[in-house]
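Q: Please design a sequence for this.
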């Protein structure tokens, strides 16, 4: 969007509001749960911050996708979990407390990991097209302003004015959802020709990446002997990405519309497989609860 008011002001402002609405739903206890269930959180960090970027990189190589679109998908893979992952976890009857904890942790870790991964992606996939100097320091500052600060403000308001925070949380969440839809529509409309010319390549890749990461997050958690409820949660947390942030990084920070398209496309398609996974696992977990015999305290359903 080349420095226009949409990319320089409206997109970052919308993202900041979305993160503020996320902060309204978090409490210090969500971070405190790290001590109580460190294994589950460590598995989530492994899946989301290590396996997801590696899988995305490997799939791009196998699919033969390079250039700006490859950079866009790597930006997406570097983003934290999406704000609706908690809702999908609730729908699936997963471990909502774990989802909240992981969302909080991921929002903080991304401030440091995203600039480094984006810098690598630019050098690897776009280096042959142009001389690329990734603004790592600037990106870290913007991550603090667009992610850390709004979440902190939301959490502070929730802590100091709990009644007010709880009252406006629902409204802010609805507004955030509308903002996300408007951002996607604007990105798609502005780059309609570019999207339609590459849809048959980008859409199957985005959907395949989402399905693979749902399975990967669930499978690794299961292999780590976490409960089925926690495994479902980490499958969702691994695959549901903050597409809004990916679009902001591509169009506002790096000033290239093509970088933003994978985030816009994935941000829509991830709900197709994500909802199917959530409702499918909800049925499985419901049957487990209805028919499973009593287990010893702390034992997970596998």
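A: Design:
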């Amino acid at each position: 969007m080349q420095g226009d008011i949409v990319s320089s002001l409206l997109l970052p402002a919308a993202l900041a509001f979305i993160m503020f609405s996320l902060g309204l739903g978090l409490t210090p206890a969500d971070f405190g749960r790290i001590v109580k269930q460190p294994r589950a959180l460590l598995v989530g960090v492994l899946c989301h911050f290590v396996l997801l970027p590696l899988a995305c990189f490997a799939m791009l190589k196998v699919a033969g996708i390079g250039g700006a679109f490859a950079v866009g998908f790597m930006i997406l893979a570097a983003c934290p979990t999406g704000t609706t992952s908690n809702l999908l976890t609730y729908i699936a009857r997963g471990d909502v407390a774990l989802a909240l904890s992981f969302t909080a942790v991921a929002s903080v870790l991304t401030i440091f990991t995203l600039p480094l991964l984006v810098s690598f992606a630019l050098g690897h996939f776009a280096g042959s097209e142009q001389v690329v100097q990734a603004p790592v320091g600037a990106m870290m500052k913007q991550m603090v302003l667009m992610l850390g600060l709004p979440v902190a403000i939301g959490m502070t308001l929730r802590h100091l004015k709990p009644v007010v925070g709880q009252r406006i949380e629902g409204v802010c969440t609805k507004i955030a959802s509308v903002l996300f839809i408007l951002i996607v529509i604007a990105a798609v409309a502005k780059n309609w020709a570019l999207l339609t010319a590459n849809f048959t390549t980008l859409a199957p890749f985005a959907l395949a990446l989402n399905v693979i990461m749902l399975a990967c997050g669930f499978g690794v958690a299961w292999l780590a002997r976490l409960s089925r409820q926690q495994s479902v949660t980490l499958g969702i947390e691994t695959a549901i990405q903050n597409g809004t942030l990916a679009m902001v990084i591509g169009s506002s920070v790096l000033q290239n519309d093509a970088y933003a398209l994978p985030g816009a496309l994935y941000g829509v398609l991830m709900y197709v497989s994500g909802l199917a996974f959530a409702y499918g696992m909800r049925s499985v977990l419901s049957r487990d609860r209805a028919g499973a015999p009593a287990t010893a305290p702390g034992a997970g359903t596998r």
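Q: Thanks. Anything notable?
A: The longest helix spans residues 257-291. The radius of gyration is 19 Å.
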